[in-house]
Amino acid sequence: MNWYRTSALDSVRFIVGESVLPYYNAAMKIARAGGITILRDKELFAAALSGRQVIGAAWESWQGNDYSFDVAVDKAWQNRGVGGKLSDLCIREFDEIKEAYGEEARMHIHVVNPIMEHVLQNRGFTKDPTMNGIFYARQ
Ligand SMILES: CC(C)(COP(=O)(O)OP(=O)(O)OC[C@H]1O[C@@H](n2cnc3c(N)ncnc32)[C@H](O)[C@@H]1OP(=O)(O)O)[C@@H](O)C(=O)NCCC(=O)NCCS
User: Rounded to the nearest whole angstrom, what is the distance from the C-alpha of residue 103 to the centroid of ligand 1?
Assistant: First the structure.
C-alpha cells in the first residue's frame, strides 16, 4: 500500500503561482464536484497535475493579517497525499510571506470536511473557538 501511495504521487506534478492560471476552470470544476464554494476573495494558487489533467487545486487569500486557503482533490485521486501536499504548499507560502505582516500574521482555515480536519491537525493546526463555525488556526 505504501508503494502504491508513493508511486501514485511520483507521477503528480505540483505547480504554483502564475503557471496555474490556464487551469482555473478545471480547478473550479473540482471544487464544485467536491461540494465547496470558493469565495471571491480567494485566488487559485497551486494545482496538482497528472499529465495535463488537473487532479487537485488550492486557493488562497489574505484579508488583512489573516491568511486562508481551500483545497479540493478529484475524487479518483483522494487519499493519496495530494490534498496534504497542496496544503503544505499553502503553509509554506504563508510562512514565506508572513514576515511582511509581522507577528500578527495568522492562518485560519474554515473546515467543512473531517478529512481536512485530519490533514490540518497533522500539521499543527488547532481549533479556534473564538471563530463562528469550525476554524483551525496556526500562527
Ligand atoms: C479534503 C481533501 C482536500 C483531502 O484531500 P486528499 O488528497 O484526499 O488528502 P490526503 O490524501 O493528503 O490526506 C488524507 C488524510 O486523511 C485521512 N483520512 C482519510 N479518510 C478519512 C476520514 N474519513 N476521516 C478522517 N481522516 C481520513 C487519510 O488517512 C490521510 O491521513 P494521513 O495523511 O495521516 O495518511 C479532499 O478530501 C477533498 O477534496 N474533499 C472535497 C473538498 C473539500 O471538502 N475540501 C476541504 C474544504 S475544508
Answer: 30
